[in-house]
Amino acid sequence: MSRTDTIAVVGAGLSGAVIGRELAEAGLRVEIFDLRGHIAGNCHTERDEQSGVMVHVYGPHIFHTDDREVWDYVNRFQTFLPYKNRVKTTTGGQVYSLPINLHTINQFFRTALRPDEARAFIAHQADRSIPTPSNFEEQALCLVGRDLYEAFLKGYTQKQWGCAPAELPASILQRLPVRFNYDDNYFFHQYQGMPENGYTDMIGRILDHANITLHLGVRFVGASGDHFAHTFYSGPLDAYFEYEHGRLAYRTLDFERFTYEGDYQGCAVMNYGDVEVPYTRVTEHKHFAPWEEHAGSVCYREFSRAGGPDDIPYYPLRRAEAETQLSTYVARALRERSTTFVGRLGTYRYLDMDVTVREALDTARCFLSRRSARAPMPAFLHRPI
Ligand SMILES: Cc1cc2nc3c(=O)[nH]c(=O)nc-3n(C[C@H](O)[C@H](O)[C@H](O)COP(=O)(O)OP(=O)(O)OC[C@H]3O[C@@H](n4cnc5c(N)ncnc54)[C@H](O)[C@@H]3O)c2cc1C
To answer: Which secondary-structure segment (H or E) carries 328?
Structure first.
């Protein structure tokens, strides 16, 4: 059946939902497809039947932004309750506060330094023998010195990315990862919070529009786009082309779920910095909703590893040697006439949720203005490279 007056949106995650909603509100008919049996993509949340805890099914998600329009947009569909992410880390048998701040430094070095003293102390710790850091490890040694690097950055980074930090680009750690005060709010952004009823409820409300038809459990293949006026594709870029140039590298995550009667760890996120501990962190989901009370608890131990063909792609692994393969896919995508690649998988970039919403709003607006000007829509509004 031809649906040439209809727009296809692939993926019912945040990208697809926001694009679909904007187009639907502009009067267009939109069909949204997701191969999963639920909406919300990787932001999906669901209540655990036994304990009532809201579980972040694909890993913890905290909304934070400085973008006022994005904040107002998400608040249209859900009440956001105050939530500050305060992460702890266990390393060498001790618990410390993250990101590395004055409390971390004073605990770790058993000192009672004031901010200026700590600044001078860390400057003294820093390795000044490396003139131009060429990788993550050198960058870290230059910024914080060996002791803090080994305790807080080395093991975690190695587990997260599956390689020695010396093999990762220095750019990952450009800013000084240390605060010389007692601020342990993980994010700097002005607006931070959690959707009162979870992300899936919020995205359900975004999708709730008379012009939107949702198809769950349906895999969209590139050729299906021929039936539509235009396709917005938020699935993996390489999958769209049936992996004809090989698979783009991703890290995937395994979550070992366990329950506990009471409070397992006293905080939402506990990182594990030691490389001997095989998981990167433990998430205790009920602490993401401090306004709720639950006797039971649901926790995830999180393991990171190289993604295989049947795994969920989580983090793009942007290694220099893979950029040629990515360029080939981008060149291929640029030849598509009626598909726009969007979102974290379609553009092979790590995107926080606020950036995802911002890009989705900009993409929909660009499409609407080009459509009224009868101008073509580009394959990428935000290019992977
Ligand atoms: C572990 C983890 C933690 C995160 N924590 C945070 C956080 O704390 N704060 C924050 O701001 N951001 C966080 N993020 C980022 C956040 O998950 C993304 O910003 C968001 O999910 C991007 O939405 P999306 O719609 O682009 O992609 P996705 O959520 O991946 O949605 C894409 C959808 O497309 C579907 N799909 C793919 N291919 C096809 C196909 N061929 N046919 C049909 N459907 C298809 C998929 O099933 C999926 O549902 C985190 C990400 C990860 C991995």
So the answer is: helix 323-334
